[in-house]
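Q: Could you fold this chain for me?
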Amino acid sequence: MSIKLFANELSAVYDAPLREMLISNFTIIQDALNENDWETIKSQVDDLEKEVNQLIAQPEQLEAFKNELWGEIRAIVLPDLSPLQITQEVLTFRTDSQGQQQASMSDRLMAEINYLKSSTEMWQRPITVDDAGRISTDYLALSTTVKNAKKIGIIGDSVAHGHLADVNFGDILVKASGAKINNVSSSGAHMMNNDNNSIYAQSKQIAGCDLVIIQGTDDDWLANAPVGTKSDDEKTSYIGAFYRVIDNIRSLNQQAKIIVMTATLQVPVDGTTIRRTDRTKNDLGKDLHDYMDAQKLACNDLGLPYADFMQPALFQPMNPAFRKKMMPEGLHPNSVGHQLIVQELAKQLYYFYG
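A: Sure. Below is the predicted structure, expressed as C-alpha cells.
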C-alpha cells in the first residue's frame, strides 16, 4: 500500500501564497520518502551504526566514562547519607560525654576539653613556659617554701652570683616570693677555706634566713683540692669544708630550710674550641663528677635535698645550640639558663619541704 501526501487537495486554502508554501513543504517531505532517496537514508543509518559499533568495541572506556559521570552526578544530587540521617548524626555528636547537648559541634569539643581539664591533676597545676620555650610545671607557684620565704640567703661561686646573666635565679626567687635576699656568692670561690671569698667564709655571713641555697663549685676540682671525707676540716678537703659549711648555716639560721645545688655540666669554649669538659681529669685524676657525687652522698648523710645540674636532661653544654641559647661560653648560664635553674630548685624545695 502506497502512502501519499495530499498536497494538491489544498485548493480549499484561499490564501494563495500560504497554499503554495504548504504545497512546497509537503513536496520536500514526499521526495525524502520516495524510493529514489532511500539509498541516501540507508547510507546515513549505516554511518551511524558504524559509530555505535566503534563505541561498543571499547567497553572499558564506556564503563569508565559512565562511572565517572555517575559519580559526579551522585556527589551532587545523591549524598551518602540522607538529610535525615545527617541531621540525626549531628544531633547525636552534639551530646557530650556528660549527657549535655551543646549548641554546636565546636561547643561539644570545648566542653570535652573542659571536662578533661577539671578531672586531670595536670591541668590543676600552674604551667610555665620559659624564654627557651620549655614547658613545665611552675614549681615557683606551687612551693609554699618559696611563696612564704621572707629572707633568702645564697652562697656559692660565679654561677650563683649570676656572672653573664642579667637576671639570676636569686632575682627570680625574689620576684616570686617578695623576700629579701642576701646573695654573698663570689666568682672563683672555693668550698675550702682558702680566702675571705670562699664558700666556707660566705657561710658565716648568712644569718636569720628562712631559706638558704648552697651551691657546689668546680673551683676546688680545678685547684686540685682533695675530695676528702666528712672528718676533714674546712682547710683539708672539699667534703670536709662542705660539712663545716652546713654546720655554720644551721647554727646561724636555725629555722631555715636548706637546699644544696651541684655545679653544672660544663664545656668551656673559646669560639668553637673546647678547653675542657666536666670529665677532664685534674692532677689528682679526678673529674668534676667525682666532687659532685661526693657532695650528693654528703647531702644524703645530712638529710638535705639537692638540685642536680650534672645531668644532660637539664644541661647540654656540649651542644652548640644549647650553649647559644642558655650558656654562651659553655660555663656560665645566662638569664634563660637561670630560668631553668630556678625551676629545678623550686621543684626540689616543693618535693622536700612543700
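A (continued): The radius of gyration is 46 Å.
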